[in-house]
Structures are given as structure tokens and as C-alpha cells.
Design goal:
heterodimer, A: 229 residues, mainly beta, eleven-stranded antiparallel beta sheet, 10% helix, B: 229 residues, 1 helix
């Protein structure tokens, strides 16, 4: 890999990423090895308090399921996408939905490493849209997150276990759209700092089992299973 | 070989036989083993919905796309996008999600035959008082006869072949919770396109299809032939 090629690749990847980022996110895992490609399904919990200027303070409690693609693009950069559609309760975590869409993108870069530890910085944005059958109200749920983690690999029963943890920043914005009156209310999280801790077991060199707790204001667990090529 | 036959059969069944509510027409690139791509693609669709409303519909989707060659004969692709689109008396928040699979069923020298299946789902949420939301879904399948070429010292592929697409639309007038459903039905047509990988790592491609009317797309991606840069 030439330095010029790596720089151009990184710049183009960042441009694509920045062009895509508009919403909210949080599907960041350990940094992948160079060339690895992972397809996974991940369940995510969101549990936050969001506030509006006029004082309402609803709890935002959601669960959703997303298909996650992650690619170890270079030795130092991992990019990820997540997406899902389908209004079923199993996928969107809500009953009686007419429509559900989720799209997100993330990037992770190495800051420092030695033989034992890897320090990374990550950014992610995701948007989810829910439309109910029985109310004239729609909802956009936007997440934006930054995190820095220390990760390390361990060998357990001849399988690879990756542990990662570190501080995290997370903005959660709930956009309520009352279509009948063309009104939009944006409610934003106030508590935004916390941390993340997670583990990924790589079984047989290909199957990944992922569990992590994203703790900003409240513990918000995520679980996933995938296949790494 | 048995697995390959099963996958080919499944893809053909999903992409061509199953007349499910959907819409999509983009032939996917066939990537080599462990090749990966990330980039931007813009697609234009146009189907005739007959007596249903609207009688004719054209729409476009801008997406970030990521692809991976699991084997020399099997590639996966995911795509998604968030955008704002201004229409006639409407201003849409647009979300799109899609996924596809491409299988090279036969290769002899510079010639190959591939089968593709793809699904894409787009929701337009109208922010203006018209509240004219729209949902478009497409399931498509295609077979392609491909020819590998070299032009100006750059490797490329030209392809053409039959395509089938089933397009479905839900229209929500005045934010109605009971959509007007319309289906263009399974339409048969043809597609043709070209794709070049410049300097080994920038892929550019374009294609056109004809089902009821002309449609097409164009994209540019970073291409990593061995999985990473």
C-alpha cells in the first residue's frame, strides 16, 4: 500500500461518510483487522431522557434490530453501515407500526497501538423513522456518537476474545412530527457523556458473538451475532 | 458446487419468480474474492402503474453502497441513504435501504453469465402541509452476459441481459393512515451497462434498463481487490 493511496482512500472514505451522516448512531465495535469484512445482526437498546424548550421530558425507550456491515478498509480504518426496514415488532421494537426504517454509518480509526493494546477513536450516526397505524404522529430518532476505546485480544479456549472499553459521547434527538398540524418538535438529550464496554468472541475464526453496554445516562445493552469473512 | 447451485436457485427464485411488492433495477457488480468496495450511487427509476395512482411514477435514490466478494462467484451488496428532496409542492425527508446478491454462474475466458437479485425500499416523508408521503419498494432479478475488456489500459466489464422488476407504491394523501396501494406488477425488460476499475482502485459504472420506460444509474467507488488498501 502506498502512502498516497492510503491517504486518498481515507479522504474519499471520510467524504462519503460525512456526506451520509445526518442522524444518530451507535453501532461501533472493535476495530477489524485489515481486509476483514463482517456481516452481523445487532439488537440495540436506547434509553434516554430527551427535553424540549417548552419543558416536556419524555423518556425515549426504543429497541431495534439492524443488519450491520463492517469492513477493515485499511490497517488503521474500519467503516460500518447499518440498515433495516420492516414495521414488525420483532424488528422495530414497537407494535402497530406502519413503517420503520433505520440507516446509519460509522467510522473507526487507530490512534495508537502496541503489541498488546489498540487505542481507537470512532464516530457514528444513525437515523430511525417510525410511523404508527393509529396516531397521526411520526417519529425520527437521531443518534450521534463519539467514543474512544482501548481494545485488547485474549485467547480463551483457543478462540479469540476481544475486549474494548472507553469514554463515549452521545447525542440523542427525538423529532416528533404531528403531521395533521405540520408541527415538528425536537427533543434533545441533555446528559451526553458516559462510556462503553464490550466483548466480541470470534469462534472458529469466522462467527462473531458481540455484547456491549453503552452507558450514557442509562445502561443500554447491545447484542449481535455475525460472520467475519 | 452443491452450495453454489442452491444459492443460484434461491437467487433466481427470489429475484425473478417471486412477484412480491417491490421495486429496483440496478445490476450489481460482480466482485472478485475478497474484493471490497465503498462508494456513492445514484439511480433513477421509472415504471408505469397503469390505472393505479399515479399512472406513471419516476423517482430517484442516492445511496452509499458497500460491496464484498465472498467468493469469485458470489458478491453481496448493501446500500442506504438519507437525503432531502424537493418535489412539486413537497419537501421530502427520504430514507432508502437496499441489499442484493450477485452470482457468477458461468465463465469461459472473457465471457461470463451472472444472476442478480436486489431489493430496495424508499420512504419519502413530506415535511410540507401537503403531507403527501410516499413509499416505493422494488424487488428485481436479472441475468447478465458479461464481457471483460481492456480500454486505455484499464480493466472493465460490459454487460447486457434480461431483467424483471416488481414495483410497489404506497401513497399517503394528507397523511392518511390508509395508504393507496399501487403495483406496477412484474415487468420484464432489458439492462445493459459498463464498469471500469481505474488504476486498480477506483470503480466507475453506469447502466440503463428498459421496463415500461428507460431508467438507470451511475456510481463511483473505492475498490480494494484484496479486501483492503
Amino acid at each position: 500500500m502506498t502512502t498516497g493511496r492510503a491517504i486518498v482512500a481515507t479522504v474519499v472514505a471520510c467524504s462519503v461518510f460525512l456526506a451520509a451522516v445526518r442522524g444518530y448512531c451507535e453501532v461501533i465495535g472493535p476495530q477489524l483487522p485489515k481486509g476483514a469484512f463482517e456481516i452481523a445482526v445487532q439488537n440495540r437498546s436506547v434509553d434516554r431522557s430527551v427535553y424540549a424548550e417548552f419543558g416536556s421530558t419524555p423518556e425515549l425507550e426504543r429497541q431495534d434490530l439492524a443488519l450491520v456491515l463492517r469492513w477493515g478498509m485499511t490497517e488503521f480504518v474500519t467503516i460500518s453501515f447499518e440498515g433495516m426496514t420492516g414495521p414488525s415488532e420483532f424488528v422495530a421494537g414497537e407494535a402497530d407500526l406502519q413503517a420503520f426504517y433505520l440507516a446509519g454509518v460509522g467510522g473507526q480509526a487507530t490512534l495508537w497501538r502496541n503489541e498488546r493494546f489498540l487505542v481507537t477513536a470512532a464516530i457514528q450516526a444513525t437515523r430511525a423513522y417510525r410511523r404508527w397505524n393509529d396516531t397521526r404522529r411520526d417519529e425520527f430518532d437521531d443518534s450521534f456518537a463519539l467514543q474512544t476505546t482501548v481494545q485488547s485480544d485474549f485467547s480463551v479456549a483457543q478462540q479469540t476474545l476481544t475486549i474494548f472499553l472507553g469514554p463515549a459521547y452521545s447525542e440523542e434527538t427525538l423529532v416528533l412530527v404531528e403531521n395533521l398540524y405540520s408541527r415538528r418538535a425536537e427533543l434533545e438529550s441533555v446528559e451526553r457523556w458516559g462510556g462503553v464496554i464490550g466483548a466480541v468472541a470470534l469462534l472458529g475464526g469466522h462467527v462473531t458473538v458481540n455484547a456491549q453496554v453503552f452507558w450514557v445516562e442509562n445502561p443500554q445493552p447491545r447484542f449481535g451475532i455475525g460472520y467475519r469473512f | 458446487m452443491r452450495l453454489r447451485s442452491v444459492v443460484i436457485l434461491a437467487t433466481a427464485t427470489i429475484g425473478i419468480v417471486a412477484p412480491v411488492q417491490t421495486r429496483a433495477q440496478l445490476p450489481m457488480p460482480q466482485l472478485g474474492k475478497r474484493a471490497a468496495e465503498i462508494g456513492y450511487v445514484h439511480e433513477w427509476f421509472h415504471r408505469d402503474f397503469g390505472d393505479a395512482l399515479p399512472a406513471e411514477t419516476d423517482w430517484s435514490v442516492a445511496s452509499v453502497a458497500i460491496g464484498y466478494g465472498v467468493q469469485d462467484w458470489l458478491s453481496f451488496q448493501g446500500q442506504g441513504g438519507l437525503s432531502n428532496v424537493r418535489g412539486d409542492g413537497s419537501y421530502y425527508d427520504r430514507l432508502s435501504i437496499g441489499a442484493g446478491v450477485s452470482i457468477r454462474a458461468f465463465q469461459s475466458g472473457r465471457w461470463s453469465i451472472s444472476a442478480n437479485a436486489r431489493y430496495i425500499d424508499t420512504f419519502d416523508h413530506d415535511q410540507w402541509s401537503t403531507q403527501f408521503h410516499k413509499s416505493m419498494r422494488t424487488l428485481s432479478g436479472s441475468a447478465q452476459l458479461g464481457l471483460t475488456v481492456v480500454a486505455w489500459n484499464q480493466a472493465g466489464t460490459l454487460w447486457a441481459g434480461p431483467i424483471a422488476s416488481d414495483d410497489h407504491s404506497d401513497l399517503y394523501f394528507n397523511d392518511s393512515r390508509e395508504p393507496i396501494e399501487a403495483s406496477a406488477g412484474v415487468g420484464w425488460g432489458a439492462s445493459a451497462g459498463a464498469r471500469f476499475v481505474l488504476f486498480g482502485w477506483i470503480a466507475i459504472y453506469g447502466y440503463t434498463t428498459y421496463i415500461d420506460d428507460f431508467a438507470g444509474g451511475a456510481g463511483i467507488s473505492l475498490h480494494a481487490s484484496r479486501g483492503s488498501f
